[in-house]
Specification:
There is one protein chain. This protein is of the alpha+beta class. The chain folds into 2 domains: 2-59 and 88-98, no CATH class; 120-417, Porin, CATH 2.40.160. The protein has helices at 2-60, 89-110, and strands at residues 118-141, 145-171, 174-192, 201-211, 214-223, 231-240, 251-256, 262-267, 278-289, 292-303, 306-308, 321-324, 328-338, 343-354, 358-361, 367-368, 374-386, 392-400, 408-417. The strands form 3 sheets. Strands 1-2-3-5-6-9-10-13-14-17-18-19 form a 12-stranded antiparallel β-barrel. The chain has a 4-stranded antiparallel β-sheet with strand order 11-12-15-16, with no helix packed on it. A two-stranded antiparallel sheet has the order 7-8. A hairpin with a 7-residue loop joins strand 5 and strand 6 (231-240). Helix 1 packs parallel to helix 2 (89-110). The longest helix is centred in the first third of the chain and has 59 residues, at 2-60. It is elongated, with a radius of gyration of 34 Å. The N and C termini lie far apart (91 Å). Mean pLDDT is 80; it is low at 62-89, 134-140 and 146-150. Residues 64-106 are annotated as: Disordered. It comes from Stenotrophomonas nitritireducens. Keywords: Coiled coil.
């Protein structure tokens, strides 16, 4: 009887232990479910708090970098780095500023950032041009047979431009800018028909380097972004002819014919500016449409006539006169997408239409320069990466869509804000 009682007690103890383990597992499951629900509610509270702060900032006209008001007391969330949400008020504010970073980068490239006191930008741009032109010197016989020389002219140009830009935020609506470029150019001229032979090709290479035309401008914010209205900025600027003008250059004569007529001549040194004062005015707009950022611009450039000691392209003659470039209009539009808090991708189209230039020799009449009008359309692909909280790397590939645009261009910009 004693043995049976002992066995019965052991069985009851084992059953009780099993029930306790099952109860513990059930309680642990409930605890984990409550923790997950609690963490989710805290995340929702953080998101709602960020949205309220953003709406208050827009209503009060605050900038993105202004310190937001102290948020209402919220319960502390458990450690949840793997969940990907903020677990404190400071992290919530940091996440908010990161979400604005891509918008600020787009605004900085399209117009200006009005919440930065000082921005210094270093940029390097490479552009490639390649132009071919068929020249016929002769006449058609019997409307079908060409008698004369056939020559192919080819111009290949590579330019490298370093630009230093300084942008000073005077107040939340006005920013002043100064752009100082340094240009290095190499141009190769090729001309068929050298020595009177259509099969012979003459080639000459020239270079040029120096300060380009300096531009001073100002950005004024007309409208701040609203629920249905984009941020709109007006830009006015003036460009000074500080670069080497393309008029009155020394020429290098490569070939003359038997009558001393110049068959092939090239400039001895490449210009770095257009030689004229210019004024510009434009409008740009940026609108956030999460997750996309829409932007566009339109503008007008006016060139002022100027006198030069020699405007003749013939190396053997000197003819003083005046030059007036045609008015130019530009426009563009695009969209940017933020991949994460550091990286964004943009695609855009830009076009610049220029009217014909005019020249007038001293004592003569104004004459339009045939072929001086241009239509330069470009497709732009860009990637922006935030190196630090104050420094950004912008890379841009431009693909020429019309003969007047560069074949392609590659630009790198590094703006740093202070």
């Amino acid at each position: 009887m004693v043995g049976l009682a002992v066995c019965s007690s052991k069985v009851e103890a084992q059953a009780q232990a099993a029930d306790d383990e099952a109860g513990v597992r059930a309680l642990m499951a409930q605890l984990e479910a409550l923790k997950a629900s609690y963490a989710q509610e805290v995340r929702r509270l953080r998101e709602l708090d960020m949205q309220v702060q953003a709406m208050q900032a827009r209503i009060n006209g605050k900038t993105a970098t202004a310190t937001p008001a102290a948020p209402a007391a919220l319960p502390a969330a458990p450690p949840a780095e793997s969940e990907g949400y903020a677990s404190s008020a400071s992290e919530a504010r940091a996440a908010k500023e990161s979400a604005r970073r891509s918008v600020d980068d787009v605004k900085q490239q399209q117009s200006a950032l009005f919440n930065r006191r000082l921005t210094l930008e270093n940029s390097l741009t490479y552009a490639r041009y390649d132009r071919k032109q068929l020249t016929l010197n002769g006449f058609l016989a019997l409307d079908a047979i060409f008698l004369g020389n056939i020559a192919i002219e080819n111009v290949e140009s590579d330019s490298l431009t370093y630009n230093f830009a300084a942008r000073w935020g005077v107040n939340p609506k006005l920013t002043l800018n100064l752009d100082v470029p340094y240009i290095a150019r190499k141009t190769i001229y090729q001309k068929g028909g050298a020595g009177g032979s259509a099969a012979a090709v003459a080639q000459e290479e020239t270079h040029g380097a120096g300060i380009g035309d300096v531009t001073a401008s100002a950005n004024y914010r007309l409208f701040q972004e609203g629920p249905r209205r984009p941020e709109t900025v007006m830009t006015v600027g003036i460009t000074a002819p500080t670069g080497r003008e393309p008029y009155g250059l020394d020429w290098k004569v490569i070939e003359r014919d038997d009558d001393d007529f110049i068959r092939f001549a090239v400039p001895a040194e490449q210009p770095t500016g257009n030689g004229l004062w210019q004024a510009s005015v434009g409008l740009s707009a940026v609108k956030t449409a999460d997750p996309a950022i829409l932007f566009g611009n339109i503008g007008y450039i006016r060139s002022f006539k100027r006198s030069f000691a020699d405007i003749d392209s013939n190396p053997d003659t000197v003819n003083p006169g005046q030059v007036e470039l045609g008015d130019s209009y530009y426009f563009g539009a695009g969209v940017a997408f933020a991949f994460n808090e550091r990286t964004s991708l943009s695609i855009s189209f830009s076009d610049k239409l220029s009217a014909r230039a005019s020249t007038r020799y001293k004592g003569g009449e104004w004459v339009k320069v045939i072929g001086s009008d241009a239509n330069a359309g470009t497709l732009n692909l860009g990637v922006t990466y935030a190196l630090t909280s104050r420094t950004t790397l912008v890379s841009m590939l431009g693909i020429g869509l019309t003969p007047d645009a560069p074949d392609f261009s590659l630009a790198f910009k590094v703006p740093s804000t202070f």
